[in-house]
Amino acid sequence: MTSILFLLIGIFSFTHLQFADAQVGVCYGRNGDNLPSQQQAVDLYKSNGITRMRIYDPDQPTLQALKGSNIELILGVPNDHLQSLTDSTTATNWVNSNIKAFSDVKFKYIAVGNEVDPSDSNSQNILPAMKNIQNAINSANLQNQIKVSTAIQTGLVTNSYPPNNGVFTDSASNFIKPIVDFLVQNGAPLLVNVYPYFSYAQNQQSITIEYALFTQQGNNDAGYQNLFDAILDAVYAALEKLGANNVNIVVSESGWPSAGGVGASVDNAGTYYKNLISHVKGGTVKRPNGPIEAYLFAMFDEDQKSGDETEKHFGLFNPDQSPKYQLSFN
């Protein structure tokens, strides 16, 4: 969630959240010492009509709570498990224990690693782990139901304005090209964590808060009304330059903090989430035929998150399960 893309560019009714058209999911992290139980969290998803979830590890109580819920799931492989899954037997056992054992959980994607930097030696483990997990998925005859991918940060793309000029950096290109080839071969999307907040916070002289919050009037000189679309289309442009015109992007995280940093407030975060939920019913300039599958980060504030103070304040809900925002999802 530390992605920074430098773009040099000019009712919640208190009783129920309705996630329109089931396009929006919510990421469920557990880095807090005051959070509800996994069963309570899943019940909160269900009571608010949230039909998609992303989790970051195969937490058994969460998977148990998801049984029969009909909630579509992105299941994460933690970065510190990637190396072990380069062994095919270990990968098969992982799939058997965490997927086949939960036949009444609606798995949709497996995210093999999250924002692994191409310069990190661990990055060399991603593709072998993806291939081994894919083979195990195939053996279980689940390849049409579950797609295997990885989640990247948008900082892997440079020359991102205008978005059509977007290209993966030299170091990222060598890393991502074989992964993209794998996605093409298996008909899988690329998972991308998209954070206009970080771009805005690092580039306030060139990015307005209105452009970051979807509230800008009219388009800029590149034809964009908002930063989210510009970031997303820069990644699409980078994929096209790798010959991967047909790879779809799933926005596997996007959010705005309510405290802890520049522009981080309840008002701004509420505006961002409300407008994002509405916006993803459509498409982007490069990909106008929506909807965009997107996952809001995150379900709860997580007081044990490391990094900047903002990392602790991305929740849609407080740890006591009360909603943080007045949002209309209709």
UniProtKB/TrEMBL annotation:
- Origin organism of this chain? Stylosanthes scabra
UniProt key word Metal-binding: no
Which InterPro entries does the UniProt entry name for this protein? GH, Glyco_hydro_17, Glyco_hydro_17_plant
The catalytic activity, as recorded, is: Hydrolysis of (1->3)-beta-D-glucosidic linkages in (1->3)-beta-D-glucans
Name the protein family: Belongs to the glycosyl hydrolase 17 family.
Q: Which domain of life is it from?
A: Eukaryota
Where does the signal sequence lie?
A: 1-22
- Sorted alphabetically, which Pfam families does this protein's record hold? Glyco_hydro_17 (PF00332)
* Coiled-coil residues: none
Name under which the protein is recorded: glucan endo-1,3-beta-D-glucosidase
Q: Which UniProt keywords apply?
A: Glycosidase, Hydrolase, Signal
Q: What is the lineage of its organism?
A: Eukaryota, Viridiplantae, Streptophyta, Embryophyta, Tracheophyta
Does Transmembrane count among this protein's keywords? Answer: no
Entry's EC annotation: 3.2.1.39
